[in-house]
Write a structure and sequence with these properties.
The protein is α+β, with helices and mostly antiparallel strands. The chain contains twelve helices and 19 strands. An eight-stranded mixed β-sheet has the order 5-9-10-15-14-13-12-11. A four-stranded antiparallel β-sheet has the order 17-18-16-19. Strand 3 and strand 4 form a beta hairpin. It is globular and about 70 Å long.
């Protein structure tokens, strides 16, 4: 749905609530130029319906026949033909970066949480990442053939169990508990995705919600109760651009069956003031960090904080908005939000509630706040990285402690037949080739020694119709220089696994 506000010239992040089954997930799209450095010899996700049964011959080759069970955080799960989660991902489950003291992701969570105080808001930070398909998809109304259910996007433990792809997997349960007027959820989420400096198969989301109960507010007057709450909230001096009406019949419709315009006007105002306060908290800290690192910079220090509200579309809110911040000369998307669809409350047995919800990616914000250029750094155990961060009262910009040369290797191959780009990537069915299967193979073999993987060429034979693809892999460690021999060894393993697991023909 198009916004009445002109779109930004530089878009750092793409929120996709339905395109991959991820609610307000922060898909960072950082513009990182391809380095010109080369390795030196002396140094260095067709949609598959959830109901479809996979035949035994299509068992993922990431789980061997002898590996009938997976143990995750003390619980044991049976595997089946749907299982596609590798041990390299399971090894990251205990890390919980959003709870590690002094970690940038954790500090970012703390800063945002501080704007949503108890007892109005309960904070849920330690929910298990293992959820049912019903929790992750069905409770939120995802159709059976939704691409977010595809094994090319989601890590399946078995047919009925997944590693959550979004924090909203817990939303229906928390709504149903109805234990507080508001809540936040912070959690690690998992998705098969691209390999580059702004994507990682495990990242962290935070979502929040605020509700009012018609049966509990005085006289059942939701609008008055919300405006009264808003009057008690702290004010700010942000410059706010909000040129559009709260609702628009075509672009941003009112849920007229359930809400009055007066109610939605009040809820939207409360939502926007709440999230504008988050911007003040985060970007005031970012300004201080910039000044501490580089001295007073007029382009930053004298630039007033500006935000704008852009009409958006999310399936689970209406009306909906994206919040953008003007920062260092560009408009940056920060989060998505809106008035919660009433069906979610009805399905959770709290039909008298009305409220708002938002979602934000913690790495996305942390990369801006701490000037961290590569998402892999968040997973580093190197004290040269970790020691740079302490408390929310002392936000520091990241200082690079090493810079090592890139090592580019190309791999080109023919697909076995004409292929779609949205399947399951299995040797027995080349029609199901998916780029995420290539990314997963590279991740499993190279891990954090791979900076990015890019499709650099594709070709379709004019006679046979066969399709050829060429990917460029950038091997580069964050902590040391790779030798050409190390890069070659990994690359040969990648080539072999592409043949073995996807059934391509190398060129």
């Amino acid at each position: 749905m198009k916004s009445a506000v002109p779109r930004r010239a530089f878009k750092l992040e793409h929120f996709r609530w339905t395109a991959t089954g991820v609610q307000w997930s922060c898909r960072q799209r950082l513009s990182v130029p391809l380095s010109s450095q080369r390795c030196q010899s002396t140094s260095m996700f067709n949609p598959r319906p959830r109901a479809e049964k996979l035949p035994p011959t299509q068992r993922t080759n990431l789980v061997t026949d002898s590996q009938r069970e997976l143990e995750i955080e003390g619980s044991t799960y049976r595997t089946d033909p749907w299982t596609n989660v590798p041990q390299s991902i399971l090894s990251l489950v205990p890390r919980r970066l959003h709870l590690q003291p002094s970690h940038p992701v954790s500090l970012t969570r703390e800063l945002i949480e501080s704007r949503f105080p108890s007892p109005t808001y309960n904070h849920h930070n330690d929910l298990s990442p293992v959820v049912t398909v019903a929790q992750n998809f069905d409770s939120l109304g995802f159709p059976a053939d939704h691409p977010g259910r595809n094994r090319s996007d989601t890590y399946y433990i078995n047919q009925n169990t997944v590693l959550r792809t979004h924090t909203s997997a817990h939303e229906a349960d928390i709504f149903r508990q109805n234990a507080s007027e508001g809540y936040t959820i912070s959690a690690d989420v998992y998705r098969r995705d691209a390999v580059d400096r702004s994507h990682y198969p495990v990242f962290h989301q935070m979502e929040g919600a605020r509700m009012w109960d018609r049966g509990k507010v005085p006289g059942g007057d939701i609008a008055k109760a919300v405006w009264d709450d808003l009057a008690r909230m702290p004010k700010h001096d942000l410059e706010v651009e909000d040129p559009n009406p709260t609702v628009d019949p075509e672009r941003n419709p009112l849920q007229a069956k359930h809400h009055s315009l007066e109610e939605v006007e009040a809820v939207a105002a409360h939502l926007k003031r709440s999230l504008e306060g988050v911007v003040v908290e985060l970007f005031s800290k970012a300004k201080q960090a910039a000044a501490a690192a580089n001295g007073p910079d007029p382009s930053i220090q004298e630039e007033p904080l500006r935000v704008r509200w852009v009409e958006a579309y999310f399936p689970f809110t209406s009306p909906s908005w994206e919040l953008e911040v003007f920062w260092q000369g560009d408009w940056l998307e920060i989060l998505g939000c809106g008035v919660t669809k009433q069906d979610l409350y009805i399905n959770a047995d709290i039909p008298n509630n009305i409220g708002w919800a938002f979602g934000v990616g913690l790495e996305r914000v942390a990369m801006l706040l701490f000037s961290i250029p590569d998402i892999r750094l968040f997973w580093s155990r190197d004290q040269r990285f970790l020691s740079q961060f302490t408390t929310v009262d002392d936000i520091n910009r990241y200082k690079s402690f090493s810079k090592h040369p890139a090592c580019y290797k190309d791999v080109a191959f023919w697909l076995r037949s004409s292929s779609s780009s949205a399947g399951g990537g299995l040797r027995s069915n080349a029609q199901d080739f998916h780029e995420n299967d290539v990314m997963e193979i590279v991740r499993i073999i190279g891990g954090d020694l791979v900076e990015d993987v890019r499709l650099v060429d594709e070709f379709q034979h004019p006679v046979s119709g066969r399709k050829s693809l060429c990917y460029r892999i950038n091997y580069r460690s964050l902590e040391r220089t790779l030798t050409n021999e190390e890069a070659n060894e990994m690359h040969e393993s990648v080539r072999g696994e592409l043949v073995k697991k996807i059934g391509v023909e190398l060129r």
